[in-house]
Amino acid sequence: MSRSGRERKAQLSPDAERLLASALGLANSGSRLEDAYWQQLLVKRIEHLLDTNHPQAIYDAL
């Protein structure tokens, strides 16, 4: 089967991958302390993307 006939797996940008990893870390955390760590990391990454005018990674991660 030709390549165009197969489904292609969507690739996320490195920024979107980092956002996803942070969100999964928060979802899987087991304590308030760990929650605070992942929340802080997620906020920093989102703020950085918005400040540098790169919101597409946020949309892709959603």
Short description:
By secondary structure, the protein is an all-alpha fold. The protein has helices at residues 14-28, 32-51, 56-61.
Could you describe the largest sheet, including whether it forms a barrel?
Answer: none
- Note the run of SSEs as H and E: HHH
Tell the overall outline: flat
Strand count? 0
Given helix and strand content, the structural type is mainly alpha
Question: Can you give the mean pLDDT?
Answer: 90
Assembly form of the protein:
single chain
N- to C-terminal separation?
Answer: 31 Å
Helix content: 55-70%
Number of helices: 3
Radius of gyration: 15 Å
Number of domains: 1
β-strand percent reads: under 5%
Low-confidence stretches: none
Describe the structure.
This protein has 62 residues and is mainly α. It has one domain. Helix content is 66%, strand content 0%. It contains three helices and no strands. The chain has helices at 14-28, 32-51, 56-61. α1 (14-28) packs antiparallel against α2 (32-51). It is flat.
